[in-house]
Model the fold of this input.
Amino acid sequence: MTNKIDVTMRYETRPDRPPRIAVISDIHANLPALQAVLQRIEELKVDQVYCLGDIVGYGGHPNECVTILREKKVPCVLGNHDQAALGELDITNFNAVAKQAIRWTQNELSKENQDFLRSRPMEISLEDVFLVHASPRNPEEWNYILSIPDAHLNFEHFKERICCIGHSHQPFIIENRDGKLMCPEEPQIEIQEQYRYLVNVGSVGQPRDHNPESCFALYDRNTKRLELVRVPYDIDAAQSRILEQGLPEVLATRLTYGS
Ligand code: ZN
Done:
């Protein structure tokens, strides 16, 4: 296989730590959702946006979504669907509709957008925040973190105060108080200097927590406030595009339910 992805590549920490950052993930080629989220991010006066990967797969606008993030120079890590869309991941374990969407995406992606995805790093370290698609423990194995024991195993695999992940499309905040893990009920918390955090930022383009609204994380380094933000978007438009492109109907209907 040519153009192997460099798993060790990291972005340099910006000398000016931007005060307000947004972390988005799992766009899955849903352009109306990405546009709604980026608009909200602008309204919130965010200084820097980061993306945790899976820009493509499932949805009907792969090129449009990659182009927007590429042109805006949004630092993005690689997701498993991005890797699959490059033909660089064995998709035997993908379900039938995911496989069908990946094959369609492989034919759709422009050379420029393929090159952009191929050059994504597996992780980005921002000094206080660590960014990875699936898990800090084994980024390239695409393991899911779905339980407190899963989370426990991962805290020793990043050194930053906060680790942001995506992958499961199910947002959560886990606070590590000296080895004791808690899940705050509220979608916003104040980051405490003595604790560490694992945050699933949810999904922009295919939420699976029974809330169909897009989700992303907002972190303000000055106020120390971290929040999971929900944004409604034009679901009908995303569904029409999926059906027009001949993609499986279930990929459209699930967006209604956030499932
Ligand atoms: Zn995903």
The first strand starts at residue 20 and ends at 24. Residues 1-13 have pLDDT under 50 and may be disordered.
